Amino acid sequence: MRKNYEINFTTKTITITKAFSEKAQDFGSEEFKLYKQFQSELPEFSIVTPAPKARKKNSKITYDKMVKYITCQMDSTVLLKRFAEVRELSKATSAPYNFVYRWFITTFPTYDELPEFDEKGDIIPMYDLAAAGITYEEESKSAA
Predict the structure, then answer these.
(1) Cα angle: 131, vertex 133, 137; to 5 degrees
(2) pTM, whole model, 2 decimals?
(3) What is the 3 state secondary structure string of the chain?
(4) Hey, which residues does 117 pair with through a beta bridge?
């Protein structure tokens, strides 16, 4: 059986788990008896429960972030059109987000890096139109 408490003589604390704390609230339980024993035999020690661990932030790139990133690109109209098509195609897969995410990361491999600028102050494109499935004809149609 796992011990649900830890005694630290250096800091004079007794750290108990949440489960131990809940069981100690039942009069007559083993945990209750142990808790009372801690109080009587170690009165100068404080009994604490650890703070809950912070949850990890979701690090996924949301669709909204993808759209915002694409709109900053030079060929944003063509790329946004392709993005919409890929999202629509993804609905037929078992994992739509993963489908779109793979397309996005393949098209924009430098997404999480700082952009580079040319002498005019414009962002230098760091994406692969071929990986996005965009041909030269599509690009020239949108430019016209």
Answers:
(1) 120
(2) 0.53
(3) CCCCEEEECCCCEEEECHHHHHHHCCCCCHHHHHHHHHHHHCCCCEEECCCCCCCCCCCCCCHHHHHHHHHCCCCHHHHHHHHHHHHHHHCCCCCHHHHHHHHHHHHCCCCCCCCCECCCCCECCCCCCCCCCCCHHHHHHHHC
(4) 123
Please provide residue 14's backbone torsions phi and psi, each rounded to the nearest 5 degrees.
-120, 115
Amino acid (1-letter code) at residue 118: D
Q: How confident is the model at residue 1 (pLDDT cuts 50, 70, 90)?
A: very low
pLDDT in tens, 117-143: 888 887 777 777 776 676 655 555 554
Neighbours of 113 (CB within 10 A): 9
